[in-house]
Design brief:
The protein is of the alpha+beta class and 206 residues long. It has 7 helices and 9 strands, in the order βαααααβββββαβββα. α1 packs antiparallel against α2.
Length: 206
């Protein structure tokens, strides 16, 4: 099976899958497999993800978000405002500079995960490739269940030639909590490939 013919999912979708219970996993894969073609209007957090990228790329002040939130649909304002507040809390007191994270992909025998991090940030001298995760209110995210996603980030193929010591991280926006783990061992790789295999088993049987 070539990369082009394998099912392809986003990293947020894969994270959602790994932290759900068995029955919820089946329902989620069914939604992904039979969903309509992607359209930006279906992506609830797209505007805010792009705004955060712009904020760092252009070195803007937090006043930018006050202007940005005025352009957001009224149905998103409350959640977006909270997420911005939590993101500011995460950045508070830290020295931050931007670099281009580039695109990334992770490939198993049957599954492709689009694993591009949104942010490349040097935080207090430490470089991080950061995936923004906005669903921390509904989905319980902790160091144990986010580990598979971190292993995936650590074993992805990156277009940019990043230093091998760079931190791969997931930021749970809801809790202002950054998870980082750059260790890779056989058990973690088995867990990652087991999740991908389970995803494909469900995919092939629904």
């Amino acid at each position: 099976m070539t990369t082009a013919t394998r099912p392809s999912v986003g990293l947020t979708q894969f994270i959602d899958f790994t932290i759900k219970s068995s029955s919820a996993k089946i329902n989620m894969v069914r939604r992904i497999k039979y969903q309509d073609a992607y359209h930006p209007s279906f992506d609830y957090w797209k505007q805010l993800r792009e705004a955060i990228i712009t904020f760092h790329e252009q070195g803007l002040s937090f006043d930018y978000f006050e202007t940005f939130i005025k352009s957001v649909d009224v149905r998103k304002k409350e959640n977006y405002t909270f997420a911005i507040r939590q993101y500011r809390k995460f950045l508070n007191g830290k020295r931050i500079s931007w670099f281009n994270p580039g695109k990334a992909t992770w490939v198993s025998n049957e599954l492709v995960v689009r694993s591009s991090p949104e942010l490349g940030l040097i935080i207090d001298g430490e470089p991080h490739l950061i995936k923004l995760y906005f669903k921390g209110e509904r989905e319980k995210v902790n160091r144990r269940n986010i580990g598979t996603a971190l292993t995936l980030l650590n074993t992805s193929i990156y277009e940019e030639d990043h230093d091998r010591h760079i931190n791969r991280s997931v930021l749970n926006i809801h809790k202002s909590k950054l998870f980082t783990d750059d260790t890779i061992n056989q058990d973690k790789l088995i867990a990652l490939h087991s999740e991908a295999a389970q995803f494909m088993y469900i995919w092939n049987n629904i």
